[in-house]
Amino acid sequence: MKIDYTDETFLARWIANELSSEELKAFQQSDAYHQFKAIDEASLLLKVPDYNQKEAFNKIQERLSSQKQDKKVIKLIPAWMYGAVASIALLISLFYFNNSTTISTTYGEQITITLPDNSIVHLSPNTTIKYKEHNWNKRRNLSLDGKAFFEVEKGKSFTVNTEEGNVTVLGTKFTVDASKNYFEVLCFEGKVKTTSKNSDETILTKGKAYRTYNNVSENWDFINSSPSWLLGETTFNNTPLYQVIKALENQFNLKFDTSKIDLNQRFTGTFTHEDVNIALKTVFAPMKISYKLAKNSSVILTYRK
Amino acid sequence: MNKEPLKSVCEQKNFETIFNKHSQTLRNYIYYKCGDIQQAEDIVQEAYIKLWGNCAKVIYEKAKSFLYTVANNHFLNEVAHKKVILEHQKLSVSSNTTNETPQFILEEEEFHEKLKKAIASLPEKQREVFLLSRIDKKKYSEIADIVGVSVKAVEKRMSKALLTLKEQIGKI
Questions:
Q1: Widest distance between CA atoms in chain B
Q2: Which end of chain B has fewer CB within 10 Å, C or N?
Q3: Strand, coil or helix: what is B157?
Q4: Interface TM-score (ipTM) > 0.95
Q5: Given 2.60.120.1440, 3.40.50.1580, 3.40.1000.70, 3.40.1190.10, which CATH number is that of A52-231?
Q6: Which residues, 6+ apart, have CB-to-CB distance to A65 below 8 Å?
Q7: A234, A232, A241: which is closest to A291 by C-alpha?
Q8: Where is the RNA polymerase sigma-70 region domain positioned along the sequence (chain B) (predicted)?
Q9: For residues A219 and B95, what is the distance between their CA atoms, to the nearest angstrom?
């Protein structure tokens, strides 16, 4: 029988002892048989490098036991927890860093506050300032509605933002009075730069004052070394009556009926904070305006006949 | 029918059984592929650690094929192929009762060297089948299971390997 050991699976079957006896006999008579036989016998003696199964298993056990500890830690604090904690921290810090401090005075109230850099702000009645305590020393910036006297410590630029304009200084004493359509800055020491709403820039030195009222700006000089309202009286210099009445309202918690008078008249003078009747008299007598103080704190103003 | 309760791979005892049953063949199999015994053992270690990590998902009966699949993927990913270096058991040399002439022993040794070189240069698919059969004494059906091909394909590879070896040795 002619055999074909190059048949696809013949040799495999021979190695596995699966040949029929005829096939085997025929193969044994072929020339190549002894070569295959030698390969078969020699290959049965082959071996691989020794394997230490025990040691291999122990290695795995070691790695697993160290892994187990890791796993436990992860289970105690689930991964989402880190995210949650981080976002809460972020929220808190956002809240904290964005949280601005607001200080307000009410009618007749006058307070003095110290900013984080030891600059001092005196607030006149009915005034609000707002600033961020965080990073104050790097960014000295506050907003003002009302009137305040600033004594600024030297340092980075200090800016007062108001609806009507901004004041920038490095370290001086000055007052800012800002309300609707009114913006007044008095410089008591050093140098300040004011920038009004319509971006007019003015540099003020000691004893210089600046004001815009209904978009008209004015400059004047004064001699006081500190604002009089800190000492119990409010001083005006050619100030629109509208502003004077507002100061009276804020100081004494009054309500004025101004329908019968001209609010654009100017007033120069002072009123005391101590007695409402004297204050009203000092303001309105020279203006030839009579006033009537009612029980509910409303004041009716009329021109004297 | 008497159903045996399912064995869990997560049980230490079962895990160890699986290790003792399959780790050596797995390690040899990877070794036949990559020729680096250290790498082969590392891959086996990774495979078993992965099996432990997934012990709840892998049923006991499938653990073996899980191991082979993981090891194979590992092998494909990292392998720096080296030549398979094999040794011959030195039966005839160590035994003093040998009747062979020194001449024969020398010729035999020379033949063994040739054979080992020829095996090392076999294509990977033929080599792994050949060595799993010769060294690990695996049946074709078992090899088919390990390599993931049909029995017929294993037989073909085995025959091919023998033919290639004969040609290689004849040439030298």
A1: 64
A2: N
A3: helix
A4: no
A5: 2.60.120.1440
A6: none
A7: A241
A8: 19-82
A9: 121
Q: Identify from B117, B159, B164, B167 which residue to disrupt to test chain A contact, counting A C-beta atoms within 10 A and taking the largest count.
A: B159
- For chain A, residues classed under CATH 3.55.50.30 are 234-305
* Residue B14 clears pLDDT 50, i.e. is over it: yes
State which H helix or E strand residue A255 sits in. strand A255-257
Contact residues, chain B, for A51 at CB < 8 Å: 24, 27-28
pLDDT over 70, % of chain B: 82
Q: Which residues of A touch B36 (CB under 8 A)?
A: none
Computed from CA positions of residues B117, B118, B124, B129, in that sequence, does the dihedral angle turn out positive or negative?
negative
A120-169 pLDDT tens trace:
899 888 899 988 887 787 888 889 999 999 988 887 888 999 888 888 88
Residues of chain A with CATH 2.60.120.1440: 52-231
Which token pair is B65? 């094929």
- For A48-81, how does the pLDDT look when each residue is reduced to its tens digit (9 = 90+)? 888 888 888 888 888 888 766 555 444 556 667 7
CATH of domain A234-305: 3.55.50.30
Who among A12, A48, A56 is closest to B31 (CB)? A48
- Could you give the count of Cα atoms lying within 13 Å of A15 in the half-sphere of its Cβ? 33
Tell me the two tokens of residue B19: 């290790």
Q: What is the pLDDT of residue A225?
A: 82
Q: Containing domain of residue B154, as a range? A: 98-171
Chain A residues near residue B130 by CB distance under 8 angstroms: 43
Residues B162/B169, Cβ–Cβ less than 8 Å? no
**What pLDDT, in 10s, does the model give residues A243-257?**
888 888 888 888 888
Would the pLDDT of B94 be above 50?
A: no
